Amino acid sequence: MGSQKYTPILVIVLALGLLGSIYLYADAKAELAANMIETHRLQTDFSQLSSNYDQLSAQIETLRDSNTELEARIAELESTPGEPTPPPVVVVERNEVTLNISGSGTIRNVIFLIGDGMGVGQLSAAEYENGQESLSISSMPYKALVTTYSENSFVTDSAASGTALATGYKTNNGRISLSASGEILTTVVEVAEDYGAATGIVSNTRVTHATPACFMAHVSSRGMESAIASQVLESGVDVILGGGSYYFEALDPIAAGYAVVTSTDELLDYDSGKVLGLFAPSYMSYDDYRDPEVEPSVAEMTSKSIELLSDDPEGFFLMVEGGRIDHASHDNNFDVTMREMFAFDEAVMVTLEYASTRNDTLVLVTADHETGGLMIVGGYDSTGISYKWISDDHTGSMVPVYAYGPRAEEVMAFTDNTDIGEFLVGLFS
Ligand SMILES: [Zn+2]
To answer: Architecture of domain 99-427 in CATH?
Structure first.
């Protein structure tokens, strides 16, 4: 039959078709297998990336939280506590202190008070605003005017002048008890410690801030406050009171031998041993805005320091800074400047009350520089006097130094702030 003739061809065609199908089938299977492997690989990659993504998202969240905290921290540190309208200036009641002008006797204790930025203008205005009652400072019998220029500027900053007052040497602005060429300058605190005296440092700024730092640390720049904080803990100073807890957060004051107090009550209850009192993360509040239960006054810190230090048979050296007269003067805020002056003068009063009952305690009061160029003007006519600021920065004016107690009359020979530092270092050498 005709079809039989084609049978072999048909068989060949079918066989070829079958072979082709088998080939295509194998090919598709191989491709499928390859695709499955690829799919698996992509799924693995995807889950790896998802888990990386989750981890990174979590890290970003943590970083965002910490940024928010840091921003809040920076804002807190940068803000000046209590800027709202200040209350009217109030006349301060003072105890009468009878000073024994002759001041004989041997020096056992030295109390050195520094009004940061407190020039003759601030002192004069404070006398007038205090109902023309003399300040306690003004009752001190011996006084002189001293220049304050630094090694590299006629207008000093608090670091260079703090260095002059703590060591007796000039240095460049910004340096903390290091000479311009980098030598360590011995401080009155160090010689007092070697002598065996107890030592104390009080400030209502941060205890790591320029003025107190000059008595406890040696660094090339006042901004190195973390390094200053470490040196403060190694300084051996027995009583350290002020603001600036932020810089001690990464440190261990207890391991360094300090009890830590953080409120007025804790401070007032504390009765012996080395103590670090930190009452604010940064500066302590201006006196008018402080919560008295949390932040002690400069006078309270001074009187507690005297109580804690006076047990030492070798006597004591205490430095007290009214550090925020400077800040209010930078702001040209007259009322706050006056309240800071009164708060500082109250600390001087507490000191004179202690010194006037004995003949072995020298009290010195000075400023590191004047701030704001505060002037008292007018007054010739019925308009009365007014106050003028001529700067929002430090000025190069001389500042007064006042003294009471044994050897107080020696300040009358002083002409420069290094004379004060040299004298203080000499007392314990
Ligand atoms: Zn200043």
So the answer is: 3-Layer(aba) Sandwich (3.40)
